[in-house]
Amino acid sequence: MAKKRIITLCGSGIASSTIVAQKVKKACEEKGIDVDVKPIAFRELQGEILHADLIISITPGLKVDNVPVVNGVSFLTGVGEKNVLDEIFKILEEGKK
C-alpha cells in the first residue's frame, strides 16, 4: 500500500490536532500502514486538501468533497477510540478518497 496522507484538523492546528495526529500515527504504524499525519488549523485546509487521503476533524459536521472525513473527538476523550481507528484503517486500506 502506498503511503497515505492524513490531515488532523482543529482550530489552532497546535493542541488537539497534534494529540490526535500522534495517536493515529502510532496506531497506523502498529497496524503496518505507512502514513504521513499532519496536524493543521482549519484556515490551512484549502491548501492541504488536495494531497489528503483522509481528514480527521475535531469539529463534528465537517464535509469535504472527494476526501473522507472522520470525527476525531474520540481520540481526545478515549470514548469509542477503537471504533474510529477501525473506520480509519478501513478507509486507508480500501484507498477511498
UniProtKB/TrEMBL annotation:
Which molecular function term from Gene Ontology is one that the record holds? Answer: protein-N(PI)-phosphohistidine-sugar phosphotransferase activity
Reading the lineage from the top rank, the first entry is Bacteria
UniProt domain PTS EIIB type-2: residue ranges: 4-96
**InterPro entries recorded:** PTS_EIIB-like_sf, PTS_EIIB_2, PTS_EIIB_2/3
Matches recorded under PROSITE patterns:
PTS_EIIB_TYPE_2
**Which key words are in the record?**
Sugar transport, Transferase, Transport
Which terms does the UniProt entry file under GO BP?
phosphoenolpyruvate-dependent sugar phosphotransferase system
Checking SUPFAM superfamilies in the record gives:
PTS system IIB component-like
The answer to whether UniProt assigns keyword S-adenosyl-L-methionine to this entry is: no
The answer, when asked if Metal-binding is one of the entry's keywords, is no
Entry protein name:
PTS sugar transporter subunit IIB
What organism is the protein native to? Calorimonas adulescens
